[in-house]
Amino acid sequence: MKYERMLLILCAVVFLIFSLLSPGRFLSANNILTMMYQLPEFGLLSLAMMVCILTGGINLSLSSLSALCGIGSAFILSSSLQLPAWILILVAMAFGLVVAILAGIVNGWFIAYVGVTPILVTVGTKAIYEGIGLILTKGGSVSGFPESFFFIGGGAILGVPFPLIIFIVISGITWLLLQKSPWGERVYMIGISPVVANFSGFAVKRILLQVYVYSALLAGVAAMIMISRYNSGKVTLGSSYLLQTVAATVLGGVSISGGKGKVSGVIMATVLLQFVSSGMNILGVNRFAILIIMGMILIFALVINYVMDVLGTRMHLRRSVKPA
């Protein structure tokens, strides 16, 4: 049975369990709609984490980077610039995405061209982005946006939440880039073996830089949705998603050592974790207990990931070593 099919069955089982435990609340139209609005920001950050892990790296600055993008856009949205609302919104979003690109370039340059380990670079830049955000906001929040901006995170088209439409479109683009393009093949090859990728003539450093810029862009888009939904920009925006994005990526079948994983698996794992989080909130589980459970899910996913890698290696060796 394919791993993605197993995830789909697991999603159905978890949904059924919470539906039976609290049918009046979990299956309510309000809760279903709430999950549909919450999922996109979580999903985008999970895809942002995925592209980095595929190369054998990681991006621990995602949440702080996303918050900084949101803060930058929030300052423009709440400014006294005498511009039509739609122009102000476009300028603010463009500024936030430019911040994301610059942050991605910083991460990618140190990892690809300086050669610093991704976990060390992104832990360092996480502190830097968070520090800049704290200085700009003085530890508070920035609010007071044009009313029309709320459509980005809270609007709907033909009954479908607009953030969900954004997520579906970007998921499709990410799928095409990673699994249907030469660039994606090179990303996977770097994850399998950077040395082999380099000897194959791939511009490994340039591709790594592009990966971290794309990851940052996804985080920037998630930031636009979050500041619209919460009507404010602040340093803690999306901070709870960092652990969950790693869990969703690994649970989705992406090898933590890189080179293996599918977009569909990460999306299903994101949906699964959204069900778990929403279900436990409805059941009144303490938020600190939810954090513990998410940590346990991450460890479980890492163990499963490791076991599958070992079994896959053994099967490959058995097939390649034929009896004389």
Summarize this structure briefly.
This protein has 324 residues and is mainly alpha-helical. Helix content is 76%, strand content 2%. The strands form two sheets. A two-stranded antiparallel ribbon has the order 1-4.
The biggest beta sheet is recorded as: 2 strands, antiparallel
Percentage of residues in DSSP E strands: under 5%
Whole-Å distance between the termini? 32 Å
Sequence stretches where pLDDT stays below 50 over 5 or more residues: none
Tell me how many strands there are.
4
If classified by CATH, what would the architecture be? Orthogonal Bundle
Shape: globular
| Strands in their spatial order, largest beta sheet | 1-4
Helix content: over 70%
The CATH topology is what?
ABC transporter involved in vitamin B12 uptake, BtuC
* Helix and strand run: HHHHHHEHEEHHHHEHHH
Mean of all residue-level pLDDT scores: 89
Per CATH, the class reads Mainly Alpha
Total separate domains: 1
What structural class should be given to the helix and strand makeup? mainly alpha
Radius of gyration: 20 Å
Helix count, per DSSP? 14
